Amino acid sequence: MPEPAIITENLTRLFGDFIAVDHISFKVDQGQVVGYLGPNGSGKTTTIRMLLGLLEPTEGQATVLGYDAFRQTEEVRARAGYMSQKFALYDDLTVWENIEFYGGVYGVRDKNSLNATLARVGLTGYERENTGDLSAGWRQRLALSIALVHQPKLLFLDEPTSGVDPNARRVFWDLIYDLADEGTTVFVTTHYMDEAEYCERVGIMRDGKLLAMDSPAKLKEETLSGPVWDLYATPLELALEALSGVEGVQRAGLAGNHLRVITDPRITATKLKRALKTAKIDVSSLDRGDPTLEDVFLSLAKD
């Protein structure tokens, strides 16, 4: 069986007294698309920076593509691609000048290879465009091409779709899965819960801790012991207050114009409606909902 692409053991990073990453351990198999999910400040970027050898850990160890992430950093960086949150592009250069510059950094100077990389992300015909004039979606593609220019075996993408429109996000994920189909391992951080659903495995971070890591289906099955309900009622605030006192309700929270309720398996719609009627709440609809990773995150984060 191939060696895992990433192995971490008790990886920890402190900044003074602040614990940015707190004793995390996980493995990523080769060819997987792994999502690293969590709000801003949860430790996602710090994890990537340690795996790339850009930050020394306070404690713990990690291997990346079989190399020690902290003692063999050059070997890791030569084989891994990194797309940072703030796309590392030179706005005063053209698309071609950017890819040519970064290709040179990795020793890739063959024009056919550079053109093939641009074609891979749909940038053929944009070579002479000034980078500063590109839209966020096209800048995103250029940043990805730079991360791919040396054909890495492992790709780190840090919040790659932040600030781009939904259509650009969808196109980007299509590119990610094309790469995975060819054997590239992809480790992508995001705070978009819906994006994490695309991943084969998902790690959930909060306050520097890795709360869980598994497939989306397994996380839902193991974290949510009972059904999820979508409740439309008036007034919502009083309904939320009433549900907090109902035995068997694990969590209730606002979800736009309705409430999202997670209960024990024994709770029925009849019991919920009865409790709300007693509190003089007008229920317009109460239906079973499909569990999401947001439900999983909120359930884990409340502990």
TrEMBL record:
Keyword DNA-binding in annotation: no
Name of this protein: ABC transporter ATP-binding protein
Coiled-coil ranges per UniProt: none
Species, as recorded: Candidatus Desulfolinea nitratireducens
Membrane-crossing residue ranges in chain numbering: none
MF GO annotations: ATP binding; ATP hydrolysis activity
Keywords from the UniProt entry: ATP-binding, Nucleotide-binding
Keyword Ubl conjugation recorded: no
Signal peptide location: none
Domain ABC transporter stretches: 6-232
SUPFAM superfamilies noted in UniProt: P-loop containing nucleoside triphosphate hydrolases (SSF52540)
Domain of life where this protein originates: Bacteria
